[in-house]
């Protein structure tokens, strides 16, 4: 498969694509990102990678980080984490308070904000220094020690994260947050502030395409069974209340973030990350979704 030729076609076709949407403003630091950024990197099972555009530029990965924290929670918390968070698609906005109230403080899945806050709480209970451990884990699976948190984004989220403050305190009142609410929020804001490039993200996500093993070393960091479970949750819940649309158009497990990034995996084949900051009304990168739709259409490869 000549992936670079296919990516060149996608880049050309989408050069003047009007994605509509807007850069998010509720996190002021994200509003500073130029709206015309666009890049993609595809990392293959054989170690080759192909790309175009701003594929090597760092951006805030935001909710894509929820896949990393879920991976660690499964590793340390095991099956008991499902007593505190469900695995069903939300069908509601990612920061819904109404859904949380209706379901008595049990988040619908680990990729909406409430669910990821519970996962953060679990990691605080399990790890002595979860911020350090998460960063070391991401650096390890990416084979890149330069990856770091963006302090300005973390501070911006902390100053404006009123909805997340409400979510964690509501769950605390119902007994589904065990640690200090401020500590949970601090870790959550930092995990979302991780800054990575499309190249780094696609390399990190190869563990989900490679049965839990780091491609460069062969080390197994998560079990095959957990890899399967996480891919399944990405497929059904990775795009908030637009997961069905992504499955229909793209046909791969994946996860989006309000920083404009999307990562998707084709198990046994490749991992691909795309970045375009303009978001649609559901909080996903419309141009990124279109690029991945073209990728699976032109290659004829999806999981379906």
From TrEMBL:
<feature type="binding site">
    <location>
        <position position="240"/>
    </location>
    <ligand>
        <name>substrate</name>
    </ligand>
</feature>
<comment type="similarity">
    <text>Belongs to the glutaminase family.</text>
</comment>
<dbReference type="Pfam" id="PF04960">
    <property type="entry name" value="Glutaminase"/>
</dbReference>
<protein>
    <recommendedName>
        <fullName>Glutaminase</fullName>
        <ecNumber>3.5.1.2</ecNumber>
    </recommendedName>
</protein>
<dbReference type="InterPro" id="IPR012338">
    <property type="entry name" value="Beta-lactam/transpept-like"/>
</dbReference>
<feature type="binding site">
    <location>
        <position position="258"/>
    </location>
    <ligand>
        <name>substrate</name>
    </ligand>
</feature>
<keyword id="KW-0007">Acetylation</keyword>
<dbReference type="InterPro" id="IPR015868">
    <property type="entry name" value="Glutaminase"/>
</dbReference>
<feature type="binding site">
    <location>
        <position position="188"/>
    </location>
    <ligand>
        <name>substrate</name>
    </ligand>
</feature>
<feature type="binding site">
    <location>
        <position position="164"/>
    </location>
    <ligand>
        <name>substrate</name>
    </ligand>
</feature>
<dbReference type="GO" id="GO:0006537">
    <property type="term" value="P:glutamate biosynthetic process"/>
</dbReference>
<dbReference type="GO" id="GO:0006543">
    <property type="term" value="P:L-glutamine catabolic process"/>
</dbReference>
<feature type="binding site">
    <location>
        <position position="157"/>
    </location>
    <ligand>
        <name>substrate</name>
    </ligand>
</feature>
<comment type="subunit">
    <text>Homotetramer.</text>
</comment>
<feature type="binding site">
    <location>
        <position position="63"/>
    </location>
    <ligand>
        <name>substrate</name>
    </ligand>
</feature>
<feature type="binding site">
    <location>
        <position position="113"/>
    </location>
    <ligand>
        <name>substrate</name>
    </ligand>
</feature>
<dbReference type="GO" id="GO:0004359">
    <property type="term" value="F:glutaminase activity"/>
</dbReference>
<keyword id="KW-0378">Hydrolase</keyword>
């Amino acid at each position: 498969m000549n992936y670079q030729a296919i990516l060149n076609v996608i880049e050309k076709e989408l050069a003047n694509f009007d994605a509509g949407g807007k850069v998010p403003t509720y996190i002021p630091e994200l509003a500073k990102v130029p709206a015309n950024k666009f890049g993609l990197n595809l990392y293959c099972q054989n170690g080759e990678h192909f790309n175009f555009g701003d594929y090597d530029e760092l951006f805030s990965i935001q909710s894509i980080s929820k896949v990393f924290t879920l991976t660690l929670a499964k590793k340390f918390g095991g099956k008991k984490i499902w007593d505190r968070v469900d695995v069903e698609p939300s069908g509601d906005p990612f920061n819904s308070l109404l859904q949380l109230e209706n379901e008595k403080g049990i988040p619908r899945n680990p990729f909406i904000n409430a669910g990821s806050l519970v996962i953060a709480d679990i990691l605080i209970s399990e790890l002595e220094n979860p911020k350090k451990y998460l960063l070391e884990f991401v650096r390890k699976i990416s084979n890149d020690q330069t990856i770091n948190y963006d302090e300005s984004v973390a501070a911006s989220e902390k100053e404006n994260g009123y909805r997340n403050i409400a979510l964690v305190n509501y769950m605390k009142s119902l007994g589904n947050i065990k640690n200090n609410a401020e500590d949970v929020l601090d870790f959550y804001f930092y995990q979302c502030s991780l800054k990575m490039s499309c190249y780094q993200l696609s390399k990190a996500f190869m563990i989900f395409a490679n049965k839990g093993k780091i491609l460069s070393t062969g080390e197994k960091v998560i079990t095959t069974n957990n890899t399967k479970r996480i891919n399944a949750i990405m497929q059904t819940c990775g795009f908030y209340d637009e997961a069905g649309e992504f499955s229909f158009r793209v046909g791969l497990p994946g996860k989006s973030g309000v920083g404009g990034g999307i990562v998707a995996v084709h198990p046994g084949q490749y991992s691909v990350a795309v970045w375009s900051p303009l978001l649609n009304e559901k909080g996903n990168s419309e141009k990124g979704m279109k690029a991945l739709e073209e990728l699976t259409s032109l290659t004829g490869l999806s999981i379906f």
